[in-house]
Design goal:
five-stranded parallel β-sheet, inorganic pyrophosphatase (n-terminal core), alpha/beta, binds adenosine monophosphate, 2 domains, Diaminopimelate Epimerase, Chain A, domain 1, binds manganese (II) ion, 18% strand
Length: 323
């Protein structure tokens, strides 16, 4: 057993109260990993608080156990675990909001800063959920159908339905095991990836109406006014980026989502062979080779100008090529 895993086992055994946090603006891997680990530790007799700064997005509320997620930390706990966070700031909390510093950091981002006292980071893993599945046995934790459903939601969403280049035979074997444990693949796929609200579709329409293309680059923007006009209450792109990245010839797709207070959320997606993580890191963000993001200060126009010209440059240099 790896020393970090033995240490995690020791920490869990010695803790009565555990708090688990995942990242702000949570995706399916953040929610699924958080809730799966929560349920496992509850089944092992622990008192567990699961926390998301932004709460659970409606599309993931079908996940069993997701209704227990809180938005704030308890005043006290013996063990604090972060899942699917590449750096502490991704939790969406300040250190003074936490009852203690992060003991354990479990993640799969290549840009992970190893901010925990114990760090279990595997950039080869397709999702944090895959790491957690592998940890269950050595930690002596049971996977039941609810745990399996949450873990499979993490795998399905982070791989966009097993479509990303990091889907190995092992990922599919883990998925098959999770289905054997009772996870309903078709329902998870339908609810967490396919289904849209009418409002989200209208919001997409605003972004689609100003879609631009130049060589292998495709981009668009979503404004505060768009969200107000259609009544979309999220601060995100409602996953429009995944639709844009299916466009023929789009080697790199970028979306700019205007935020209140003079910042812009930027999301990049690339086809296999172009690594956009360093570009996102250069703008203060991070992510994976083919999916990265950053929160950039400036007005929409300025940020778009800077980001598009920097993104164009990765086609011209070799820096984005290879892995
Ligand atoms: P998104 O574009 O928000 O769907 O994120 C794509 C990937 O980039 C995810 O793996 C995120 O964890 C990562 N990411 C997004 N925004 C940030 C950020 N501000 N800082 C670090 N990583 C980010
Ligand atoms: Mn995530
Ligand atoms: Mn993830």
């Amino acid at each position: 057993m790896k020393p970090q895993i033995a240490e995690l086992r020791r920490l869990i055994e010695g803790a009565a109260g555990v708090a688990i946090v995942a990242h702000e603006r949570p995706d399916g891997d953040a929610v699924g990993s958080l809730v799966a680990l929560t349920l496992c530790l509850q089944n092992a007799g622990k008192q567990v608080s699961s926390i998301l700064a932004d709460g659970v997005p409606s599309r993931f509320r079908f996940l069993p156990g997701s209704d227990e997620v809180q938005r704030t930390f308890p005043t006290d706990c013996d063990l604090l675990i972060a899942v699917d966070c590449s750096e502490f700031e991704r939790t969406g909390f300040k250190s003074e909001d936490l009852p203690r510093s992060v003991d354990v950091n479990i993640d799969h981002h290549p840009t992970n800063t190893h901010f925990g006292a114990v760090n279990i980071v595997d950039p080869q893993a397709a999702a944090t959920a895959e790491i957690l599945f592998d940890l269950a046995d050595p930690l002596g934790l049971d996977v039941d159908s609810h745990v399996a459903t949450n873990l499979l939601a993490g795998l399905v969403t982070d791989t966009i339905g097993f479509r990303t280049a990091n889907v190995t035979p092992k990922v599919l074997q883990v998925a098959a095991r999770l289905i054997e444990y009772g996870a309903p693949l078709a329902e998870i796929y339908e609810r967490s990836l396919n289904r849209r609200s009418f409002v989200a579709a209208r919001y997409w329409g605003r972004g689609l109406s100003r879609l631009e293309q130049e060589d292998g680059l495709v981009w668009t923007s979503l404004t505060l006014e768009d969200r107000q006009h259609v009544g979309y209450t999220g601060k995100d792109d409602a996953d429009l980026i995944n639709l844009l990245s299916t466009i023929d010839g789009a080697e790199v797709t970028v979306i700019f989502i205007e935020q209140p207070g003079g910042t812009v959320k930027v999301s990049w997606r690339s086809r296999a062979g172009l690594n956009i993580a360093p570009l996102a890191a250069a703008f203060g963000g991070g992510g994976h080779h083919q999916a990265a993001g950053a929160m950039v200060t400036g007005d929409l126009e300025q940020v778009r100008e800077r980001v598009i010209s920097a993104t164009r440059a990765i086609f011209e240099s070799d820096s984005g090529k290879g892995k």
